[in-house]
Structure of Coenzyme A biosynthesis bifunctional protein CoaBC:
Amino acid sequence: PVTKAAGGPLHGKHILITAGPTHEAIDPVRYIANRSSGKQGYAIAEALRDRGARVTLVSGPTSLTPPEGITTVPVQSALDMQAACTAALPADVAICVAAVADWRVAATESQKIKKQTGDLPVLELTENPDILKMLAQADLGRPELVVGFAAETENVAAHAQAKLKRKGCDWIVANDVTARDGESVMGGDHNQVTLLTPDGAEDWNRAPKEQVAARLADKIIEYFKKS
Ligand code: CTP
Ligand code: CA
């Protein structure tokens, strides 16, 4: 249910969220993508909306319904996502939850690539822009609080700490994407995260994605209370 949020603790804050995968076209029928359902990003968007924030959700292709009371901007590729994020600024907070494809095909074919006997197609890749890094290192109009996610399978805390530095963001939500009880994090309903902030690292218990979202939203409220 959508709570009437006028006057909520995040009233007056604009929060930009990226969610879902990106699709990088190979040709009109094929693409490169990452595994991501969008569930965690959408849950964060809803939790922040429920606390009074104005939310812009820049979403790659997912099977989820655009949430009520949120400006959802649907995009396909990383380049689209970057443009939509730039257009959505200024924002007080940016949270990059999207599983952005690290590479795209250098030259998308305008016609479907046909199978040829013998020859395998070779795809030349080029690197996509890093949207989190761009937001975190913006000279002008940097959101006050920039939060990234780091999906890791091992050495979660160490990898996430390195990522925080490299990206220049303020917080990192590191998630251990190792499957638990037969349920994968990617596409699953639960998440196990470590929150890294300048105050240190907090390990949160494995919980439904809605609960992780609520906890992160409450952390953001706390942050603005202190500042
Ligand atoms: N991210 C982004 N744009 C990209 C790649 C990543 O905005 N082109 C963001 C993700 O949304 C996430 C964070 O950066 O918040 C970390 O993404 P991740 O894939 O874990 O980091 P990478 O720097 O791409 O490192 P790697 O995939 O090699 O672990
Ligand atoms: Ca990546």
